[in-house]
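Usage

Read records sequentially. Each one opens with the input sequence:
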Amino acid sequence: MKFNMKLVQASLVAAMATASAGSMAAVFNDFQVSEGSVPGSVVNTFTADKITGNYVEVVSFDGAGNFATSIKWQAGQYVANDGTTPLTTQLGSFGSSGYGLYALLQGTGTYSTNGAGITTFNFNPGGSLNVWIDPDANTSFTAPATGAGAWTTGNTGDPDYLIASGALFGGTGTLDPTLSSCKNGGINCGSFGTSTSFLLTALGSQYFTAPVPFYNVSFESGQLNSFVVAGTQTINGSQDVVFGVPEPTSIALMGLGLVGLGVSLRRRKQA
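and closes with the structure output:
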């Protein structure tokens, strides 16, 4: 299926702008996971609607309004019931059946800072997304020197294998040092949301088993910690992933839900 990348990006950005006026209950699409497809894991099939995790990002700013970013995301837990019920799975668990799930993303974008010191980021379409299974959960990661470089990986035994790939449609984010939760180098200084194409490999279809065909868009929402918008920075925070389809209406609703959750999270932390 062909994607109208400009239309997808415009729908996502418009939805995020609208979400700032108020939040709505998020409804996430269900999907099925078959953990028995991972070497060394026991047979276990479950239904979830969100993946929670954490990211580390190396981002470089050129001083002229452009940035390049390289992100490592590691999944932590599957969640069900519209992101409210954590599930017990073998993902990240100890023991012989535990495994890892991670993604590496590279992209570029633009940024601008207003007089109040609030910076807005906009992701360009393109770049790359690769999602991997680490059967023994033993992969090591080496960060690139700049946001234009790629993360490198290594492990001592099992080979990791690719389960999905894609590219950015677009996205936006805001770094707001005026938030009460961001004072004195706080850990909640804004949020971001992106959307990417999401195409399973043959092995990925054995892991994500329903629906068939599987969703071909992934939506990422995350939280920003405090950092300086200059030079090359390494930042980290939480990042969640849900799935959908590329119709503009679905993207708009999903964008509203994801950013609404980010707004609610900031409000709770400020309370």
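Summary fields computed downstream for this record:
- The first helix runs from residue 5 to 19.
- The helical segments are 5-19, 202-207, 248-270.
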